[in-house]
User: What shape does this take?
Amino acid sequence: MTKLKFAVLPGDYIGPEVMSEALRVLVAATAPAGLELDYEIAPVGGAGIDEQGQALPDSTLQTCRQADAILFGSVGGPKWENLPPQEQPERAALLPLRKAFGLFANIRPGLLYPELTDASPLKSERIPEGIDIVCIRELTGGIYFGQPKRTTQLDNGEYQAIDTMVYQTSEIERIAEVAAITARGRGGRVCSVDKANVLETSVLWRKTVVNYFAEKHPDLELTHMYVDNAAMQLARDPNQFDVLFTENMFGDILSDEMAVICGSLGMMSSASLGVQRNGHGHPFGLFEPAGGTAPDIAGKGVANPCAQILSGAMLLRYSFGQEELAHRIEAAVRATVTKDGLRTGDIAFGREPVGTKAMADAIIARLAR
Ligand code: IPM
Ligand code: MG
Assistant: This one.
């Protein structure tokens, strides 16, 4: 039996609730294909702080190092919000993980089923077919990690803080390749987003992307947009994009905008792929829902498990090369929501909402068909 070895980091509040359902779905999807899930659960975020005094305990990092991928839940919440910014669970867990595994490529699908257009703050008539785009965000460079990065006190007593946005050609090229591959599997169109009218890093970004596509992917359609315009265009007509491709901080902001126009955060998954290949010859990756820990509904059994389940599908696709199984899970989620009409509270719109477990049960039943 082929074993799929991955680390499971459920995190806080609804994290563990949706994670256990995602694991049930993953077992149901992979067992018939003769695959065995070999996962180890480890604390992260607030759970890491409470259990071991660190948002990313050394033992958790060790578990991740021994695995071929990470299935991540969500971290943070009111219990830890008085900690200093650099100790906040989100930042103190995610950023070191990205750095440790060189997770440079963040892939966030912006998918809204036509049946769920009511969930979007955009008027339904603007998106009659729903939304289907994807954001590729550079994740280990730019202003998040550039040096110097510090706060100092000036002679006159006031404080001065500095962050540095840095990019090298090779960092831009490797994420351009991910954007190109992604576009190849979809509509073949890449829109590269930058601020080349102001920033040096963006001038280099644009030049590098133009050269890279001309040389390696001349058949793909490449366009460019300034980030301020991209933010407007996304709200005006999201489907004008196919693959939205950008640097770290612009991607942080635009991907949240994309998430909100795609309706419920409970449906949004993501992949962060690393430079290393794992034991299966595929990229090591971290897979996580975009939605957060939802402390207000934690412990009630009502959270939407779909984002976590869809993140599990991405894990199968990208880190284990199981495209067909990933697709089956995505189709099962879609059919459960759109054909069976099962809805958790976040996407109910007047329907009787079902709980976390019932949703997962229905997805598993769909998989068995
Ligand atoms: C994200 C988050 C993180 C980021 C935070 C929690 C550090 O917002 O994954 O988009 O800014 O990258
Ligand atoms: Mg963000």
The radius of gyration is 20 Å. Residues 1-106+268-369 form a domain with the Isopropylmalate Dehydrogenase fold (CATH 3.40.718.10). The chain is about 40% helix and 20% strand.
